[in-house]
Amino acid sequence: MHLSAYFGLVSFAVAAVAAPSGHYGYSSRAVSNLKSHIKNVVILVMENRSFDNILGGQTTPGLDNPLHNGPFCNPYNLDDPSEGEGCTAPKSFDSVANDPDHAIYGNNIQFFGEFVPDNDAIASGELTPSNKGFVYEQMRKYEDEADTDDLVTQVMHYYTEDQVPVMTSLVKNYLTFNYWHSDIPGNTNPNRAALTSGTSYGHGLNDDDFNNHALPMRSIFEQLTETNHTWVNYVDPDGGTGPDAGFYSWTYDTGNDDKIVELADFYDDAAAGNLAELSYINPSCCGVGTTSMHPSGLISDGETLIKSVYDALRSGPQWNNTLFILTFDESGGFHDHVPSPLAPRPDDKTFTLETPNGEDYTFPFDRLGGRIPTLLISPWVEKGAVEQKGTNHDNKTVSYQATSILRTLGSLWDFEPFNPRVEYAPSFEHLITDTARTDTPEALPEPDPFKQVGVRPRV
Ligand SMILES: *[C@@H]1O[C@H](CO)[C@@H](O)[C@H](O)[C@@H]1NC(C)=O
Ligand SMILES: *[C@@H]1O[C@H](CO)[C@@H](O)[C@H](O)[C@H]1NC(C)=O
Ligand SMILES: *[C@@H]1O[C@H](CO)[C@@H](O)[C@H](O)[C@H]1NC(C)=O
Ligand SMILES: *[C@@H]1O[C@H](CO)[C@@H](O)[C@H](O)[C@H]1NC(C)=O
Predict the structure, then answer these.
(1) What domain range is 313 assigned to?
(2) Would you list the DSSP string of 21-45?
(3) What start and end residues bound the annotated signal peptide (predicted)?
């Protein structure tokens, strides 16, 4: 039996508060509403930015960001706060020249103030993240390469509405999740695997297994093919991320790698009404000239990609049944003031790596990564909505997370959660409204290339 039938009536009172449509997660009404209106899902996963970094300057009421609730400050030196501090403030660089640390140990020091925090104390709730180590870690890594003000700006400052007009228009016109976390406090490919399969299968770094199609677990791509649903993984040929469908041995062993195609095809397919049920887009990464927003790639070049994808969907014949999910892989070492919650382990795997102080750290995959921007873009979501936390199958109020996508796609395309992490995630089918909007913008504004700010040279 599908979970929706089981939890239908009982969760109404709990979730109705958060749900603008009056629907609620897992209810049969919300699921059938989702199924009747959404035929095409488009997922674009950008790179390495936190919620506070990208959406910190958005004025839409209700967003939990530095503009509304800050400033938030981090000491230069975790051991001696008297040395000074750097705080959240408006305006960051178009190109962030010094890529912040976001290895698992980098996240450890940013969140917990130490490279090797006590896992048992974290699991028991005794040790909670303070999110005070972002400036310290940026200075530790780059103090010889840039001055302190620039390093603080890089990790603590946020983009103003004017700097990111594309994101601003999306926030004002569609739905933004206030509390959405990446699955793993670590690098890209583990997070991209978790987004598409619910686990990184013990991988904590971008190791060769991803490029060698060596991941053995079930992915959304395998799931859809086996149940006669269609998908295509579009890839920017400039490379640098994914293709995420290519991580899995199943994709190549079964000859489904022909569904990995160049991004240019997306625009043709969108115009012709030929988009598959799931379109999954990999942007290019990571330097100047790439489109994922990964440092030192320009924010404005990332906005150009987002606008191109949106404009193609909006003007295409499938728009009326499309749900475009815009999200990020991870928070990339950029400051965010919201601590990352605990979450169930997806499997029994652990990952061990050596930290900069010489000690090993073993990560049990029992907590989420940093808070990241995620938006639902569709004629079937409320204008300018801000979604708070979700209600999961266990009636718990929890933050949304990367695996909330798999949880919701399970409602749409009838599959059970792949593992306990996916099962735990709150789904969001209740955010799909009953009636389609007719006031959605036909095109997004032109991005603002403020490149001269980004390349401020080292003096
Ligand atoms: C974010 O940034 C670094 C590269 O600077 C990676 O190690 C992370 O995994 C992630 N992105 C990519 C593309 O790997
Ligand atoms: C998928 O399609 C094939 C061929 O038409 C059919 O045999 C199979 O039962 C279908 N599977 C599902 C899960 O619908
Ligand atoms: C989409 O819906 C709008 C509003 O109902 C309608 O005007 C438009 O013709 C529809 N577009 C397509 C391609 O069906
Ligand atoms: C969810 O909450 C309702 C009442 O609020 C309860 O009847 C139901 O058993 C709960 N479900 C779970 C899985 O705890």
Answers:
(1) 3-60+160-431
(2) TS--TT-HHHHHHHHHH--EEEEEE
(3) 1-18
